[in-house]
Amino acid sequence: MWRWSGGLRFFFLLAAIAFIYTQVRLFKAQSEYADKVAAAVEGENHCTSQMRLLIDQISMQEEKVVALEEKAKRQEEECEQLRTLVQNLERKGVKGLFQQVQEPVAAVVIMACNRADYLERTIKSILKYHGSVASKFPVFVSQDGSNSDVRAKALSYSELTYMQHLDYEPVHTERPGELIAYYKIARHYKWALDQLFFKHNFKRVIILEDDMEIAPDFFYFFEAGADLLDKDKSIMAISSWNDNGQKQFVHDPYTLYRSDFFPGLGWMLSKPTWDELSPKLKENHEGRQFIRPEVCRTYNFGEHGSSFGQFFHQYLKPIRLNNVPVDWKSMNLSYLREDKFVKHFAALVKAAKPLYGTDLVLKANNVDGDVRIQYRDQLDFEDIARQFGIFEEWKDGIPRTAYKGVVVFRYKTIRRIFLVGPDSLEQLGIQTT
Q: Which cofactor is essential here (predicted)?
């Protein structure tokens, strides 16, 4: 009996130990589960907090997007209002111009971008001599871009009409390293000339830039040239500029020349010529020539611009701007027609005394009359030009100002210097012995 009682106690002891062990494991499992539940709850709370923060941020961004959309809408409305204003001003201005005169000689357009101070100087120079010929030469300012100072300056003058060119198309250069600015300028020129020739139907347009001053006889010079431009189809444009127009190289304000080189910097173009050029958007005069003066009718003061002041101090700053009154109405310019000018110019070259060898400047100074110096090629021309101080640069295979390879300039007196190309005498019909 005792043995049975002892065995029973031992069995209960084992059961108790097993029960306690089970309770301990169960408690441990419950504790671990509770910890995991707590961690999960904490994670859920954190996730909820982050979710709410993200929702708040999204809401804020949506508010900003809405605000930006509203701002963009307002700006577009303002731009549309501005475009409408410009168009109304343009229509009003052009309508008023044609009410004054049936057919102007030429529209004058000032090409501008972002230099309000330069533009003001140019406008003041033009208006100084514009009053008596206002009906013959209506003035426009064509702005490339949206510079507010330039727009405000242009609109502040009631004597001119404002146009605005907005171009957001990307520029693709033809060759690496080319300046994008020149492509944008070309686009602006095409747009402005299309507007004046095709939209407003002007017969001729004079193109100026926003860094130019004009001579007192500027308008009369172009009025005289208009008839020549219409009658002689071999003339592509009339220019008011001479690249070698520095004070020491010019003398006679009455003298005009033909040139195979495009002078630019103040030039007049006719509508038939632009009809040909506009689709190409490139200079292509196909053998036609230009009329240029000996003494400039424009002065370029643009030290700062797209060309970064290239040549300014050496070649542009010393330019002589004509201040001599010239009665262009009484001038007979028929000698500038193609068939006559080649003979006229050949006679001048033929009469000049030939010079050879070295020390050409010294030799030229010892001759009373005109002289001519023959150059062999571009390098030879550049060397001779450097000695005298004229423009050395060539473009499209010819030196600046050249006519049939001949570059003419005065040298400190009324003496003419003719730099004659290797084939120039033959092209001029001059027989050599």
A: Mn(2+)
